[in-house]
Design a protein that fits this description.
With 92 residues, the chain is an all-beta fold. 0% of the residues lie in helices and 59% in strands. The chain is built from no helices and 7 strands. A 4-stranded antiparallel beta sheet has the order 4-3-6-7, with no helix packed on it. Strands 1-2-5 form a 3-stranded antiparallel beta sheet, with no helix packed on it. The radius of gyration is 13 Å and the shape is elongated.
Length: 92
């Protein structure tokens, strides 16, 4: 085993609920333009955490939401044809 992921995945952020910092973990299986963004409930983009070509592997990205209001948000990973969206809660 090469230790490389065999499937795309987007994990649940941790901790969740969080205040004010949380982590996202995702895996990609081949070299892809990888985009990870956070959106509010109305679908407005709040943060772009990743927007670059990534090599195969598992990554962890941290988000400091100090300047954002409490509430429910969504985060979406796009890598090639793979797209997955999950929600998170910022509690102050």
């Amino acid at each position: 085993s090469s230790g490389q992921p065999t499937q795309f995945s987007l994990g649940q952020n941790y901790p969740n609920p969080f205040n004010p910092v949380t982590n996202f973990q995702f895996s990609i299986v081949n070299r892809q333009l990888t985009i990870l963004k956070v959106y509010d409930l109305l679908g407005r983009e709040v943060a772009t955490l990743v927007n670059e070509v990534k090599q195969p592997g598992t990554y962890t990205v941290q988000w400091d939401a100090s300047g954002v209001a409490s509430g429910i948000y969504f985060y979406r990973l796009q890598a090639g044809d793979f797209t997955q969206t999950k929600n998170l809660i910022l509690l102050r």
